[in-house]
Design a protein that fits this description.
By secondary structure, this protein is α+β, with helices and mostly antiparallel strands. The chain has two domains: 15-195, 2-Layer Sandwich (Alpha-D-Glucose-1,6-Bisphosphate, Chain A, domain 4), CATH 3.30.530; 198-388, Alpha-D-Glucose-1,6-Bisphosphate, Chain A, domain 4. Helices cover 33% and strands 26% of the residues. It has helices at 22-26, 52-60, 74-77, 167-195, 198-201, 221-230, 237-249, 263-269, 303-306, 344-388, and strands spanning 7-8, 38-48, 99-101, 109-116, 120-126, 132-144, 147-157, 209-217, 273-278, 282-289, 298-299, 315-325, 331-341. Strands 1, 8, 9, 10, 11, 12 and 13 form a seven-stranded mixed beta sheet that branches. A hairpin with a 5-residue loop joins strand 5 and strand 6. Helix 6 (221-230) crosses helix 10 (344-388) and helix 7 (237-249) packs antiparallel against helix 10 (344-388). The longest helix has 45 residues, at 344-388. It is elongated, with a radius of gyration of 24 Å. The N and C termini lie far apart (56 Å).
Length: 390
């Protein structure tokens, strides 16, 4: 899997809270009883815009290589190997006693102590006598429609070595290090769960480039999705200017005929094909192209041929419009674009092209998502006003 030519996301992970509420910090969680002589407890939590069933597989496959990784700072806890960005079927079966290696190639680490599938997982570091010196609980709770609260708690007993230092000195050091690593892990899990798109994976599980963007919309999912399909690129003067600059840079011939209005209508009119659709929830669109050439054309590929298409000299591109309910009358809208080259020559050409155009691509996505939000919320307000007059 070749990721990393370009990546952008308007899910600002750096600002996302991992602080547990006072109730989450105080109440009892699974695994607490395993360490009655607790001398230190740390609780963190994050809200994930997916159902519990979509979060659970990422917890089950944790552990240093050859497992999926810890989703934290891979240079520190996975010998630089990137943590998995997909569900690994062979790692989905665990039992009490399964080892999650702390570091690659090690025969020690965290042992599975308790499992309640889809609800909570407790792992711990055991003493030579087989009793846990630490526990690490991962608890999933419903936080609304298609939304999960992941609460993570670490507890240490009096037998924990605290880096060989007295607890009064070792505990502050461990607390600081743990927060840094735990925060990165929670953000990593949330990012992976929310970015996983099974419908898109059917057509492009591996890719060279990925662009992901997200925005919260105060309108129902079906209203948001309808607005997304109709959002008009030609409505924004700035988007038109960006496209003109791109056309001049690529020496394109500006089209004489006016294209259909609306995002979906306009893109399908120039060669993109709808590959899959879940009405009111998600649409996947795809095509093949040589975008580094002037006057780029999009080659339509039917859904049943898209995944296997490998004609040399092309880049396959697939993108989505997706609306997920996020509570009463609210939606999380995401759009994701993936691209993969069919051979190494095309990959090199696309890399050079992508480096030139990615700032404009990001700007257009940003502008379109804000126009979508405005349109969808405007439709909702009109509907509410209309309801009040009848």
């Amino acid at each position: 899997m070749r990721h990393g030519i370009g990546y952008a996301s308007f899910v600002c992970m750096a600002r996302r809270s991992v602080h547990a509420t006072k109730d989450e910090q105080r109440r009892q969680l699974p695994g607490d009883f395993m360490i009655p002589d607790c001398v230190g407890q740390l609780t963190h939590a994050i809200t994930i815009s997916r159902a519990k069933a979509e979060v659970w597989p990422w917890l089950v496959q944790m552990g240093a290589s050859p497992r999926a990784g810890w989703y934290s700072y891979d240079r520190l806890d996975n010998a630089g190997r990137p943590s998995a960005r997909r569900i690994i079927p062979s790692l989905q079966h665990i039992v009490v006693g399964t080892l999650f290696p702390a570091l690659p190639g090690r025969g020690d680490g965290f042992t599975v102590l308790q499992i309640n599938a889809g609800e909570h997982l407790v792992i711990g570091w055991e003493s030579p006598e087989g009793t846990p010196m630490t526990t690490w609980a991962f608890v999933l709770e419903d936080a609304g429609p298609s939304t999960t609260r992941l609460i993570v708690r670490s507890r240490a007993s009096r037998r924990y070595p605290f880096l060989g230092l007295p607890p009064i000195i070792g505990m502050p050091i461990i607390r600081a290090v743990h927060f840094v690593m735990q925060r990165k892990q929670l953000l990593g899990i949330a990012e992976r769960v929310e970015d996983l798109d099974p419908l898109l994976n059917r057509f492009m599980p591996d890719f060279d480039v990925v662009e992901r963007h997200r925005i919260d919309v105060s309108a129902p999912a079906e209203v948001t999705m309808a607005a997304a399909e109709r959002v008009d690129m030609q409505q924004s003067p700035l988007v038109r200017d960006i496209l003109k600059v791109r056309a001049l840079a690529m020496r394109d011939t500006l089209p004489d005929a006016e294209r259909p209005r609306g995002l979906l209508a306009e893109t399908t009119s120039v060669g993109w094909r709808v590959l899959a659709e879940e009405p009111g929830h998600e649409i996947v669109v795809g095509a093949a192209a040589r975008p580094w050439l002037p006057d780029v054309t999009f080659r339509p590929i039917d859904a049943d041929r898209f995944a296997s298409f490998n004609e040399p000299g092309y880049v396959k591109i697939a993108w989505t419009l997706r609306a997920d309910p996020a509570g009463a009358g609210a939606t999380v809208f995401t759009t994701e674009t993936r691209a993969v080259a069919t051979d190494e020559d095309a990959r090199k050409k696309f890399r050079r092209y992508w480096q030139r155009v990615v700032p404009g691509v990001v700007a257009i996505r940003w502008l379109l998502l804000r126009q979508l939000k405005k349109d969808a919320e405007g439709i909702r307000l009109e509907s509410l006003a209309h309801g009040r007059t009848h």
